[in-house]
What does this fold into?
Amino acid sequence: MTKNYFEIKRAGINTTFQDQGRNNLYHIGIPFSGAMDNRNYLLVNKLTGNKLDHPAIEFAYQGPLLKYYGNKISIAITGDVNFKIKRSEIIIDGKCYQTFNIQNGDELDIISTNKSVYGYLGIGGQIDLKYQWASCSTNTKANIGANNGKKLEENQKINISKINENLNNYKLDYINTKIENIRIIKGTNFDYFSEKGKKIFLEKEFTVSKLSDRMGMRLEGPKIENIVNTNIKSEGLIKGVIQVPADGNPIIMLSDHGTIGGYPKLGVVISADYDKLVQLTPGSKIKFKEVELSDAETLFKLYELETQNLISRI
Amino acid sequence: MIKNILNLGDAALYCDFGKDVNKETNIQVIKYFKSIQNKNIEGINNLTPSYNKLIVSFDLKKTNFKNLKNIIENLTITNSSDLKNKKIEIPVCTHENFSLDIKRLEQILNLSREDIYKNFFNKEFFCYMTGFIAGMPFLGDLDYNMRAERLETPRVKVPKGSIGLTEQFANIYTYESPGGWNIIGNTPKNIFNNSKEKDPNLINPGDIISFKEITKDQYNNYND
It folds into this structure.
């Protein structure tokens, strides 16, 4: 039997296996996890001929350098990513949203994301991975999921147990658009903040801080003043919740967030804007815009329709 | 009973059981949590019970706030006699390597170390909730004279197994994590087992917990 595998020659900054995440575990303290940018995750699976809930490799900023050994296999990359494929002396410029068929000895160099944080590498085949609670999403804090719950490291292998029968040649014309305003719904502690604080939140610009990761995004800017209490009795969180601790700087909960928190909830990012939010790099400017629940529901339907439409075009 | 149901964003319900933190309110939260869990309601993908709130997260592709609010308002709730509480004893070593904040507590509480430990080891605790990090139990209630604020600057790394106190609660760090609770000892017992898919948590909401002091030797030779 031929062995098909990728050898990791450079791991990248934060390279993990992700899928749709895991449900029904918040009550024991395990977050949802899963691919940060769900749309780009779904697209990479469609491009490689996989089922839509197949695991993909998520990378942030700098991606991995992989050398492939084995029979021909389809790969694709989604997001806004600069990558190259080295085939002996030839260097092929990579294009996102396009399937490439790679062969024994090829090197895939995922150099960096452009003006975005996350990119996705899809591999057309079954990867040997451990599932925990029906998901292989990696939670590096609790060491749960594929790869013993750890980031991918240099010199390890990604073993392919079965290559998809058909090699693909898909291509999709799609450009990730940047979002101007992040739309929010008022949080359950909105009235903990002064009139001036609320005005600042909805009118001023904030900057994405370097202290942002899969757990949360910290923002810097004018301070948002709390006039009631800077702590609440600890209670559940969901992704997208904007908490404001005593220092007045908002923190947005992202996919690996702690399940319980004790800071007042100023707002919640609407589901339709989550994929775009997570792609904002440190230093990016952010402005919030308030919408009603009914608008948020409609906007999500539209976003979903657009995602389904993109999938059906592949 | 639920006092009020609000939306938390567009994909979660915020069920408010009132302002107070006490066992009676928390038992109501746990009853609702278990009843909703047993019903397997379409679209719900997570439930987060806490002291006096229950957050119900859902998949916006399958349902919406209005729908679920209606279902939960009309739900029949399981009787509290159906709550199966476990009694669990946790071994704790208070050796100076583990009791990182005992001196600070002696000062803040104006109690001797002996009095602090005597009070702590004689107490039965009730598990209000688990979470923040996987499996971390929030155990109450400490006596009024045992209540201290959290550290002003949280530790970047609290060792696995650390027992912390803050306000009316004790907790256990199930793995190394940042945190600001006052650390008074360490348990060799595994509280969260990430290799178990069924019941990875040793302690669950509603359980009754007591702590038992062990020596450094017993700690070192402890077999889980």
Residues 293-312 of chain A form the longest helix (20 residues). Chain A touches chain B through 41 residues (CB under 8 Å). The mean pLDDT of chain A is 95. Residues 4-163 of chain A form one domain.
